[in-house]
């Protein structure tokens, strides 16, 4: 019997495992991963942008309101969530349980770059709105080509001097190798005593009357002595990326009814030419095309992966029926259920612009795709760049309470069973950057009594969590419940 089973070897699972290992060192943990190593799907550095989403440069987090004002609440929330992740990583590094943060995190300014008078006006208003919040007080704005050239020369070289342009810059941005971080956290879990089963694909989840779960996994090793592994656990987390929807459906929890998945694939252009890379040290986000999903916002990024610096541009959106990069073309069809067909049909009907955008993207020629890069970098030469396939994303489709039909969501969503014994994460961006905050939400909802006893320790690890609030709740707690045991 395990206390916690983690399904999927990505950043979410290992983050939850690390939190539990810190908070309840005696709880037993097992992790299942279907591939031959952790961090090979969305957490792999070449399958994501590694932006370290802090809402410093992503325009979709600061929408313009009908009255012309700029809403910044979502940007502030995501910024705070990322900084909570940073605090947890820093804490683990100081404790020596993971290597120093500079092994997976590189200082990289975050910029937003726009073209055209209307977009320049919007960016200026966004800058003025964000600067009112202390988290964004160091943000810089310029519509002077010479200043922008000093920030990122490749944006300005050979550009039409009469074109209105503007940019913002946050000098304290980062590039995060979430693959390396995932490996660090997995190694910590293994050193802590967790069992990590690679090449084990979970095929079944069945709950017993006492609330525990039996997890059935297939051992995919060619020489496996036993093809099927069955274990029991008191709690299950499904952090399997695109596969999470299928697994939660197999678990049969009523909370997953009405949920569907909309898969979107992507392609990036990459160069590692030293003379080009040396001229660009920033992550530069632009403005998404009308009707395109937020994850398809074009950006020209500095990436540092395993000591090598490259530039990455994209993503070019595409469509595949796979839910994982190394998944099956049947994934979309096998996710269909009577409870989610209406949801998915309604989303298809109400998002025709997105469908048209994806069809257009799939049919674009290489020349047309490269033209998008030249809008960012006029001097780009096709001979210097190569195409790479990015990770697969599955956006959430769901019904809203009291409504018929369905809506398409572009964020992440935590789906938890009412009894708190199983939970899973659906969706994509901002994803990895907010892993710690998301897993704290899971701990709060799945272990409400234990969470009250953990709050003071959590505040020590992450000062953003108020120690005063934790002490108040602990004082109240001591009058209401007995000592919490070390097992579920």
Task: Summarize the structure in words.
Its EC number is 1.1.5.4. GO terms for molecular function: (S)-2-hydroxyglutarate dehydrogenase activity; L-malate dehydrogenase (quinone) activity. Pfam families: Mqo. Pathway: Carbohydrate metabolism; tricarboxylic acid cycle; oxaloacetate from (S)-malate (quinone route): step 1/1. The protein is an alpha+beta fold and 488 residues long. It has helices spanning 11-23, 73-95, 117-130, 145-151, 178-192, 244-251, 274-277, 331-334, 341-350, 352-363, 366-376, 435-446, 448-461, 467-478; strands at 2-7, 29-32, 105-107, 110-115, 140-142, 165-170, 174-176, 195-197, 200-207, 213-219, 228-238, 260-271, 283-285, 299-305, 308-318, 386-389, 393-398, 407-409, 412-416, 422-427. It has a domain at 264-403. Helix content is 33%, strand content 24%. The strands form three sheets. Strands 4, 5, 6, 12, 13, 14, 15, 16, 17 and 18 form a ten-stranded mixed sheet that branches. Strands 1, 2, 8, 9, 10, 11, 19 and 20 form an eight-stranded mixed sheet that branches. A hairpin with a 5-residue loop joins strand 9 and strand 10 (213-219). Helix 12 runs antiparallel to helix 13. The radius of gyration is 23 Å and the shape is globular. Residues 467-488 have low confidence and may be disordered.
SSE order and pairing:
Elements: E1 2-7, H1 11-23, E2 29-32, H2 73-95, E3 105-107, E4 110-115, H3 117-130, E5 140-142, H4 145-151, E6 165-170, E7 174-176, H5 178-192, E8 195-197, E9 200-207, E10 213-219, E11 228-238, H6 244-251, E12 260-271, H7 274-277, E13 283-285, E14 299-305, E15 308-318, H8 331-334, H9 341-350, H10 352-363, H11 366-376, E16 386-389, E17 393-398, E18 407-409, E19 412-416, E20 422-427, H12 435-446, H13 448-461, H14 467-478
Parallel strand pairs: 1-2, 1-11, 2-8, 4-13, 11-20
Antiparallel strand pairs: 3-7, 4-6, 5-6, 9-10, 10-11, 12-15, 12-16, 12-17, 13-14, 14-15, 17-18, 19-20
Helix pairs in contact: 1-5, 1-12, 2-12, 12-13, 13-14
